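U., I forgot to send this yesterday:
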Amino acid sequence: MSLLLLLAGAYLLGSIPFAIVTARLFGLQDPRQYGSGNPGATNVLRSGNKLAAVLTLLGDSVKGWLAVWAATRLGFDLGSAALAGLAAFLGHAFSVFLRFNGGKGVATALGVLAGVDARIAIFSAIIWLMIAYTTRYSSAAALSAAIAAPFAALIFIGPQLAAGVLAAMAAVLVWRHKENIARLRAGTEGKIGGNKKSRQDTPPKP
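Result:
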C-alpha cells in the first residue's frame, strides 16, 4: 500500500462524525445546534446523556488510534504511522461528510498519541484531567494538553519525524481553539457541566 492511499483512508476514517452518529442513535438533538455547536463529546455531554457522550469520546478516540495501529500493522514506520494519525485528526476537524467542518479534535488527537506511544497519551491525559478539574474549562484543559504533548513526545520518543508530526497536530488543535481562547480571555467560555443552550438563543456576533 502506498503512503498516499494510507493517508486518504485515514482521512476518511477520521471524517466519521461520531457525535452526530451517536446523537441520531439516541434520538438527541444535533450537537451542532446547541452549546458550542461543536460535534464532539464535550458538547454531546451538554445534552444530558452521559452514555452518548462517552460513546462519542470512545469513537473519536478509537479512530485516531486505529489509523496509527493500521499503519504499523501494514508495515509503515512510526513516522508514516504518525502521519496517518494526523490525517485522521484532520479528517475529524475538516470532515468531508460535514462539508469540511468538524470537531476540535481533542479525543481524536488523544487516540493518535496512544497509537504512537501510550506514555505520551497518558501524560497528556493527566494534564487534561488536572486542568479540567481545577478550572472546569474543557477548552483550557485541551489547550494545556496540546501544548504539553510535543514536549512529552521529545521525552519519550526523541527528536524524530513522529514527534514533529505530533507537534504539527498540536498546533492545529490550538488553532482550532482560537474562538475558545477569545472567550477564555473575555470570561465568557462555558464550563464543563454547564446547562445546554441552543445556538439560536445565542446573540449574533456583531
